[in-house]
Amino acid sequence: MMIVVVGIGIYFNGSLDIFGNRDLEEPQDQGDKPLESPEPAEDTPKPPVDMVEEPRQETITIAAVGDIIYHMSQIISAYNEEDDSYDFKKFFELIKPIIEEADLAIANYEGTTAGTSVEPYMAYPRFNAPDETLDALKYAGFNLISTINNHSLDMRGFGLIRTLEQLHKRGFKTVGTYSERPDSRVLYVNEKDIELAFIAYTYSLNGMEISITAEELDYMVNVIDRDRILEDILEAQAREVDMIIAIMHWGHEYQRNPSQEQRDLADFMFKNGVDIILGSHPHVIQDTQVVEYDGKKKFVIYSMGNFISNQREESLNQYYPNLDNFYTEDGVIVQIAITKNFEDNQTWISDLNFVPTWVNRYHHPPLYHYDVIPLPKYIEGNPLGLDEQTLSRMKRSYRDTMIKVDVTID
User: Which numeric CATH code is attached to 59-404?
Assistant: First the structure.
């Protein structure tokens, strides 16, 4: 902030001077008598004080969510038979105001948009969704997509390439997969002169790596490998970025506690310079931690759960009768504020906040409607007019999510 103090203008000898100085005419001849200096008026303004400039400081905000998955029931539900089109935007209406207010909104798109010239739309175990799913993400406010996960090659190399083409066509930034050998695997993003480096990796490709050549495998997808991760970190550090953010597709499905392998890899990345880790894949929310390395606070959420999917108690109980499948209905928006002081070139996580979300599925022609609900806004007072059973499930989700995200940056 720049502070400027300006004197108040006064009239003197018929002349207005905004700085309070006397704008005198030529003095009249008064002989040898010296001119007498008038006594200064008590209210004569003082000259302006020196201009003071405070150190420049900027803050950017990030909103990050977990897995975005489109099962066939969602695809069918979004279909409009009258004009042979799909509309997924309506699923994100309630969450849109929160996502679009962030400077960077990040999600993991699990699957492909390979079109239908080679394969039809399909879901588990190989995902191929309509391009309109990407339109919905743009509408919701997302602008950075991690494309690396165990379903990246579901439609082989052509599906990976077309997915990137469709994302870039809509203006998304992407990280983790590449249509040709990139100059760098690191995605650099500059917001308000704060430079962030994004790196992203997956634990597996579900065996679909055999569908591309060894050379293509080397450059098209980022599979977790400590040497590769370290190489990318060192590149980002050489560029002197302000923060390094890792997006990790890792861990075990439906396990609410991170594995030792996840914890060890997080420690490795933190020790070597990563500042924030955003995890996905388990489809349930896992632990969060604020840790300190070399005097700097760092943050990890091992899994952000499902942002939207058809995984829920009703659809999974027949396959996994011994699991608490309702946890797959839970997600969280991780809100991170990053601040930089440009005088001392220091950057830090200045705030953390969590918005628990829950996917409400209910019958609506042609099949279902899905609402991603930001729970803090819609639990109290029941503004959506939901039935008691639905409200009870929402409250359970909120309670269990908050247990997992009970951390602060202070």
Answer: 3.60.21.10
